[in-house]
Amino acid sequence: MKTRAATAAALLSFLASESHTSTPQPFDQPVREVELVVRYEIRPRGPLRRIVLRQSSPRDIHHRQRVIERSFSRAPSAEFEAEGESYAEFLFEDLSGPVSFEARYLVRLERDGLAKARVRLREGERAVAAGAEGKGGAAGAGGAAGTGRLSLFSLPEPYIESDAQEIVGLAQRMRRPADTETLHDLHQFVIRRLAYHGYNPDSVGATETLRRGGGDCTEYADLFVALARASGFPARVLTGVTVEDADTVKHNWAEVWIEDFGWVPFDPLHAQRLPSTNFEVLDNKYIVLSHTRTDARLNGFSFYSYEYLGARPEVVERYEFRER
């Protein structure tokens, strides 16, 4: 990683030389408040003695999103946080017919990007970003810099094969003197290499995405994160929703830890399909639900999962937004 002075100088040079379709907007614009409504309907297909549905819930992220209000049409049987993620759990027993319920979250959203990341870091987010958003509480598992926690986001995992020969080779060829230049080139590689193939409910992973030359938001994020990790950057896939739809409301994008900046978000699919998106400034259109690519508490799924006793039910989810 670069020193603070070298990285800052490289950033200023990089921003001055970049050419984009749109000009990044200032961070002092009014924040955006959005009400997210998540509706579920459980439809029994036979005797259903018990079902427990667990969902990922938005939580506060410093200078990015703040949950102002939350309410449920049916009281959760449990709400808890674990390893930096937030969950709500709903229990139903002896269902003989369909049941519906909803969760509402009023979320205040701020613009994000490189400059905002530096603000967070100056205000002490090094510990928060690497610790409170992960394991180990406010201080993080690895001390002030959270290096122990950050190392977990540097390893290969299912769908993020950062140790695969083709991924490592590409990452090595795109390494530049400055971290921001390297990540810019990795970001641009994904944008130029991949084509949007439409929504696919099945994940294929970074190496298969590279072979196919396309996918949906998940494949774009998986490949970018794999390349970033292969280049030596802690990186992770984000799961959430976006009020500006480039493929589906449910969305995956990415974050990379850059020394002297902290966690910086990247969205290669939106950057490809929506010219106003770039990693210097991301619009306040994202609600983060999870930082975990394969969540064991959701049985390896994203957004929600359920466990049941009896006949397997059908579960339908819907997302709605209301601007405040």
What's the order of the H and E elements? HEEEEEEHHHHHEHEHEEEHEEE
Global morphology: globular
Give me the number of helical elements: 9
Q: List low-pLDDT spans.
A: 1-28, 125-147
Q: What is the number of strand segments?
A: 14
Radius of gyration: 20 Å
Strand order of the largest sheet: 3-6-1-14
Tell me the layout of helices and strands.
Elements: H1 4-17, E1 32-43, E2 48-57, E3 65-72, E4 78-82, E5 85-95, E6 99-109, H2 114-122, H3 125-132, H4 147-152, H5 165-173, H6 179-193, E7 195-196, H7 206-212, E8 214-215, H8 217-230, E9 235-242, E10 250-258, E11 262-266, H9 268-273, E12 286-290, E13 304-310, E14 314-323
Parallel strand pairs: 7-8
Antiparallel strand pairs: 1-6, 1-14, 2-5, 2-13, 3-6, 4-5, 9-10, 9-12, 10-11
Helix pairs in contact: 5-8, 6-8, 7-8
Would you write up a description of this structure?
- By secondary structure, the chain is of the alpha+beta class.
- Helices cover 27% and strands 32% of the residues.
- Strands 3-6-1-14 form a 4-stranded antiparallel β-sheet, with no helix packed on it.
- Helix 5 (165-173) crosses helix 8 (217-230), helix 6 runs antiparallel to helix 8 and helix 7 (206-212) crosses helix 8.
- The longest helix is centred in the middle third of the chain and has 15 residues, at 179-193.
- The termini are far apart.
- The model is unreliable at 1-28 and 125-147 (pLDDT under 50).
